Structure formats: C-alpha cells, structure tokens
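Quick one: sequence plus 2-acetamido-2-deoxy-beta-D-glucopyranose SMILES, need structure tokens.
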Amino acid sequence: MMARVPLLLLVVLGVAAIATAANVDPSSAAAAAPAAAAPPAAAAERSGSSGSQLLMVYSIQRHGARNVLPKSSLLAESEATGGPTLLPQGKRQCRAAGRSFAARYIEPTTCRNTSTCLAPDNGAGGFAYGIVGKPGVGFSNYNVFSNSSALDRTIMSAGAFLSGVFPSSPAAPPTSGAPDTAADEAEAQSALVPVFTVAEHEDWRIRGYTRCPAYERRLADWLLHSPEFAQKSKESAALRERVGKLVPHLNNSLANWWNVYDALNVWRTYGVGEPTPPLDNATFADVVELAYWLETRKMAPALAGNLLGGAIVGDLLGRLEAAERGSSGGQHYRLLSVSSHYNTQLGVLAALQRDEGEQEPHVVDHLWRDRIPALASVLAFELHGSSGGGQLLAVRVVAQNGPAAAWVVVPLPCAQQGDAAEQLAGPGACSLAAFRALAGPRALNSSRAWCDACSNTKVLACRAAAMERQLAEVGLSGESTSPLRRYSSPAMVAAWCLVSVVAAAAAALVAVLATRLVRHRRGAAGAGGGLKTADAEHGQLRPVQQPLQRSVAGGDDGML
Ligand SMILES: *[C@@H]1O[C@H](CO)[C@@H](O)[C@H](O)[C@H]1NC(C)=O
Ligand SMILES: *[C@@H]1O[C@H](CO)[C@@H](O)[C@H](O)[C@H]1NC(C)=O
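Reply:
Sure thing.
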C-alpha cells in the first residue's frame, strides 16, 4: 500500500543521442532477435498451446555496462549521488535488450513464433506507445508501467530499454555510411515512456538488498563462520595472491573479491576506471569464476531467503491479481518493467525457492545458479490465459542472459509436468493458483512487512511503522478495539503528528503568555508596592511599566 503513495514521477527520460552503433539500429536488432530464439532454446520455451494468449508480462532487467562500482563485502555502496555512470555501451546493450523484448512480446510478425504476443487493449489495433485513441497506439501509460531504482545506471538503462521496446519508426532503414546518425535519429523519435522511481534511501523494494540488516547479519555470519566460505578462501588463496599483486591498492580477500573482479573487468572490457595491468585470459577466467561463485552464494536461497526478493514478489502478486481481474474486461497493466540490479533478479529467484519456515529450499535449476546475470539481462514473468476464454491462467518465467542470448525457461518450483498449466503456457509453468500458493508466503506485501523482516529502522516507511506502534501502545490509534481500525495509514500517522505539533505549539504559546502575564502582574504589583512608599501621584509607575510592555510586545512580534 505504502509504496503506491510516495511513488514520485522523477523522470521522463529524454533518450536522445543514446545509441551510436549500427548494430543496435531497429531493423538489424529485430532481424537478430528471431535468430536468437532458434532451437534448441525455442523448443524448450515454446508454449504448449497456440490457443494461449499473453495477458501480462512483468520484466525485471539488469542495467547495462557502467563505470566501476566499489562495494563493501556486505553490499553497501558509496553514497555518491546516482552512483557510477551508465556507459554508452550500456545504453546500447539495453536498447538491444529492448528490441529483443519487443520481438518476443510486441511485434506481431515475430511474437507469434513463441505464442507470446502481448495483445494491446481491445480494439486499439496498434503496437506503438503513445496517446490513447491515436491511430496505431495500443500501449500507453494506462497499460505500461516502468519503474527503476533511483540511480544513474538504472534510470538511463530503463530509458534505453524502453526506446528499444517502443521505437517510433521500427521500419526506418539504417542509412548506410551514417549509422550513428540513423541510430540517433531513431532514438530521438522513439516514444518516451515515463520511468517512475522513489528516492534511493527510501527504496525498500528494488534496492532493499542494500538496506536489510537482517540479511547483513546472515551474510556477515556466513563470511566469518561458514565452512563453505573458509574452504573457498583456502582454495583460492594462490589465485588471489597472484592477482592481488596486479592491483595492490585493492583488498584481495575473498570477501572483497567483487571489487577486484569489477576493477579488472571494467578496465579490461570498457577501458574506464583505474588502469590495471594486462592479465592473461585463463587467469581472468578464474577471476570471473571466483566472483561468480561469491556473488551467487551470497544470493543463494539458503542465505537470502525472501529478504532480498520478497518485496518484488509482493508487487508481482498484486499485479498478477489485477491482471486476473482485468482479464474479464477491465484495464490493467500489461507490460511492467523494473529497471534494477542483478541482486534484485537473484533475490527474486531466491525468494521463490525458499522462505523462512522451510528446512529445504525448492531448488530449481536455472541459468543463474552459478553465474551472475549478464548486463542488460531480463527476467520475465508471463501470465498466460486461454484465448478460448477458459478460466485457467498460468504463470511462466523466462530469462535472457544479455541481449544476444536465447530466451530460456526458468522452471518454477510449483510446475507439475504435463498438467493443464504446462499445456497452456509451456514447460516450467504453473497455474496462477499454484504460483500464488508458492509465492504468497514468501511475499513481503507492504513496507511494514519488509521493515519487520529486515529489521530496518531507517527507511521512512519503517520509522512510520514504528511510530504507529508507539501510538498504538499509548492507545492513540484504537489498535485493540476493532480489527477495522487496527491499520493506521501513513496519512493518519502524519495527521497525528501534525495534531501533536500544533497542540504542543499551542500549549507552549499559552505557557509563554501565562508566564508573561504573571510577570507583568508581579512587575506591576512590585512597582505599585515600591510606589506605595514613594509618591503615586508623581506618576513614577511609568518608567517601571514601559520596559515590561515593550518586552511583551517584542515577544509577540517574534511569535508572529
Ligand atoms: C580486507 O577485507 C577483509 C574483509 O572485508 C577484512 O577483514 C580485512 O581486514 C581487509 N584487509 C585489509 C588489509 O584491509
Ligand atoms: C583473450 O580474449 C580476448 C577476448 O575474448 C580475445 O580477443 C583474445 O584473442 C584472447 N587472447 C588469447 C591469447 O587467447
């Protein structure tokens, strides 16, 4: 509930001059996309039934290539506003990912291949994004919702991705000899889809993984005490020693290995950040392997539980429910896009495999078990219905490990081989009911649920929740009287705060005035008393009274 209220419209992204390379122009990317869906992956992710229709897709993307990102071993990042910059290559990656996404979900000639055409709203008959009622416009802010964490790399990635999903003139041919201009032109003409976000330090949903003390405690414990970590640390000592000599300014402990990998990788691949000495390919492959091991273990179901992904899972369930209601006629968001981080993606996958109460995770084999999602990779939840108007709805998860990769299925733990849901939506899918039964207990449906699970006391929503509890303890919210009155909305809490402040100010004002009145009287009485011995008729009251009056008047001026 809470999160819908403070969503700030932060950015309507101008995405001019983003792509500069010929290989991301609309026609070449569109041509490449069907090839990417070639067998065997296409066979693996084919829908079971051509009678299915796609009602909604909820996509969680990783941003594109960025500058170096130093992190502490507990995932904390530097406070610098917006974080490291998305690189031009990163924009291209995201735009290409958007083109591939459009080929799979939007463009009629290609999306049929995988039975994943996201139909625009009834009768709209077009596939462009724009103003409802204009010819050719089937997507608008009423059925497309994009949100992002509040960082340079994700907001910019969201814009680039969406410019690939909804180019204004997908058929425009690249001008040979001037590919940069053609790409820039296409970019400038793309429909601008608004990207919503919340302030970075209040973002408990997409970036909750950076501010979850309960998870940090588990992680610190794992780093310090787990035999698994100690063993890996020993195994990797020689490699770390050797590579550490190349980057002596970096801490080469296993806990800190992300930073060694990131510094080497970003310089080697994109030529930005601090220059690092050359490294042979085999050693670099070992560096990468070790970083993948570390990062995927940190995000493993057994460690992360639902703490890192539960909030997104909660949002997803709400959107699926809205789509379920909408499928019988109403409006709903059909295309939801979350511009995020690999931690967000892995956190969601972890949450769907294990929750708090379980001994054993429902482990499923997926492409990111042992490697972190590639830049601009996409994790998409699809809601399929039967086009014959049947009641069954099914959820399927697919992933693309970077814009050039094939789409593959991420099998859900609730999938039952060959059941009606798989027949409708393809292997690895579950009925919406089964998905809800799986995901419901792992969802953190409100900021309050997240605050409690993570023991966060800093995010504003968590402080409001704590304040509500304190008010309830002193009987101000009527918590115990009626279940209907138990929930105090943030607005009510704010109102209470306002009332308290006004009451306190009024009390203070009364106290000041009363004090002054008393002093005034005493002063008058004192002066009068003094004057009793003097001669009242000589008018000696005045010099005593006047300064007192002036000071009261001065005080009143001050309060006004
Ligand atoms: C390197 O990092 C580890 C883990 O964060 C830390 O325990 C260790 O003290 C650091 N070493 C140095 C020399 O800073
Ligand atoms: C090392 O890898 C790069 C990039 O993958 C490749 O271009 C290069 O040829 C490789 N070098 C050797 C010696 O294998």
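The radius of gyration is 30 Å. Confidence is low (pLDDT under 50) at residues 1-44, 170-178, 479-484, 524-560.
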